Structure formats: C-alpha cells, structure tokens
C-alpha cells in the first residue's frame, strides 16, 4: 500500500493517506466546517472515520473538553487513523486523551451503549450498488457504495446512540435527499438545518449539508446555496474560509 503525507487546513493537520483508500476531499472539509457544538464538553461519534481527518479537525477546532470517537469498518483505516492521531497529538492540543479510533460495524447493536453520544458526524457512501461501479480497491468500494452503511443503517444507529436532542451532521448525495430524510424521520431524527452545495453558479446542487436533531419538533432552516466555484473559476470566499481551522459555513 502506497501512502502520501499531506498538509490539511493550510498545514494545521498532517495526514498520512493511502492512495488506494478514501482520501480527504472538499466534502470532508465542508462537513467539518458545517459542524457546530453547543457545549465544549460534547462527546461526538464519527461513523466511517477513514484516516481520521474529520475527527482530528473537530478536536483541534473545538478544543477544551470536546471528545470524539471515530469508528470504521476497515481495520487498516483505523490503524492509519491511530497513526495520524499519534503524529498530531501534543501536550497543547491534548488529542491523545480526547480522540479515540475503533474498528467496528455501526450495524452492530452492541458496539456502544445506547444514548451515549451528544452528536454524530458522518460522510457516508453516496451510491447504491445499482448506481455505481465497484473499484478494484475494496477500500474505495466500501467508501463509495452503501452496502454496509445505508441511510437506514445510519438512522438506526442515530436512534440508538444519540441522546435525546442529540444531533447528526452529514454531507450526502443531493439526489438522495428524500430517501435520507425519510429514513431519519421514521426514527424521530428530524431535519433542522439544510444547505445545498452547487459546483458552479449555473449548475444543479450535487451534495447537501444537513443537521438533524433527535426528538425535535417540526421546522427546518434552509440556508442560501453554497457555490464552490465563482464566475472566475476559483473557489468562492466561503469555500476558502472552510479550509481554515476555525472556518464555519
């Protein structure tokens, strides 16, 4: 397996990534910038942590007593995430005490205690088997196709693991928004904040960012669209802000 050593968020995070596994991309950065906390004592779960980028970004961003547990079904990615944790931890950021990575399957109902997390963050597989081709690399196929992590699987996990009023933050395929919302709503995980992301000013949205709350009432905030590229072909200022450690969208 071949690796690269990459600087993320303008060098704030040094990440070792395999070339034939899921890698940090714009969706990763946007999701990390989308997440909000309501207490610096929050305990998050990241489902599908891969090399650990989002978990590490959030722990560095929020600091304090913020804790996050990363879970992935691929053992080799969990090993990589732990290597990245060790490489970025120091006495100032206290990451080694606030970030943990584990191997496991979110469909396992005994993997964590019920209602033990304040929030879940997830960048799930975007496609179904019927709509996507498999890759010669199993790791990429697992990250791309939802056979082990479907919207229903995510909703089941959120229903079990979130505290009442706990939140779920996600980025997902815009074409599958109705399916995702239906799965969540059927388990009392209610959509509260939504933003569509468009590649360009004249293009349809291809992904969405969403925040759901367990046991919430009705009512959702639809934010203005986020455009990745402006008329000049360059990243828009808002996307550039997402690449800052304290960036928010």
Brief overview:
The protein is of the alpha/beta class.
Describe this structure as you would to a colleague.
The chain has helices at 26-34, 53-62, 75-88, 95-98, 138-144, 151-161, 177-185, 237-242; strands at 3-8, 13-18, 43-47, 67-72, 99-103, 117-122, 162-173, 189-198, 207-214, 221-222, 226-227. The radius of gyration is 17 Å and the shape is globular. The mean pLDDT is 94. The protein contains eight helices and eleven strands. Strands 3, 4, 5, 6, 7, 8, 9, 10 and 11 form a nine-stranded mixed β-sheet that branches. α1 (26-34) packs parallel to α2 and α6 (151-161) runs parallel beside α7. A hairpin with an 8-residue loop joins β8 and β9. Helix content is 28%, strand content 27%.
Per DSSP, the total helix count is 8
Percent in strands: 25-35%
Helix content: 25-40%
Query: What does the largest sheet look like?
Result: 9 strands, mixed
Shape: globular
Distance between the termini: 35 Å
Q: In sequence order, what are the helices and strands, one letter per element?
A: EEHEHEHHEEHHEHEEEEH
What's the β-strand tally? 11
Structural class: alpha/beta
Radius of gyration: 17 Å
Q: Spans of 5+ residues with little confidence (pLDDT < 50)?
A: none
Quick check: average pLDDT?
94
């Amino acid at each position: 397996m071949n690796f690269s050593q990459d600087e993320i968020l303008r060098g704030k995070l040094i990440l070792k990534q395999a070339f034939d596994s899921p890698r940090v991309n714009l969706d990763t950065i946007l999701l990390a910038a989308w997440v909000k906390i309501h207490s610096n004592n929050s305990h998050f779960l990241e489902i599908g942590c891969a090399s650990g980028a989002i978990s590490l970004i959030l722990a560095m961003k929020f600091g304090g007593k913020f804790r996050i547990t990363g879970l992935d079904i691929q053992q080799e990615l969990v090993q990589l995430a732990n290597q990245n944790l060790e490489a970025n931890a120091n006495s100032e950021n206290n990451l080694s005490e606030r970030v943990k990575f584990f191997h496991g399957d979110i469909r396992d109902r005994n993997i964590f205690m019920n209602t033990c997390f304040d929030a879940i963050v997830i960048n799930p597989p975007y496609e179904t088997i019927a709509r996507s081709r498999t890759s010669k690399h199993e790791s990429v196929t697992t990250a791309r196709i939802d056979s082990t992590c479907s919207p229903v699987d995510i909703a089941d996990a959120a229903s079990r693991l979130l505290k009442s009023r706990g939140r779920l933050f996600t980025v997902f395929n815009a074409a599958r928004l109705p399916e995702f919302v239906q799965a969540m709503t059927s388990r009392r995980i209610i959509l509260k904040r939504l933003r569509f992301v468009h590649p360009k000013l004249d293009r349809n949205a291809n992904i969405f960012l969403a925040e759901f709350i367990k046991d919430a009432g009705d009512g959702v905030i639809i934010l203005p669209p986020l455009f990745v590229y402006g008329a000049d072909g360059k990243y828009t200022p808002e996307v550039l802000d997402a690449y800052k450690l304290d960036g928010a969208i």
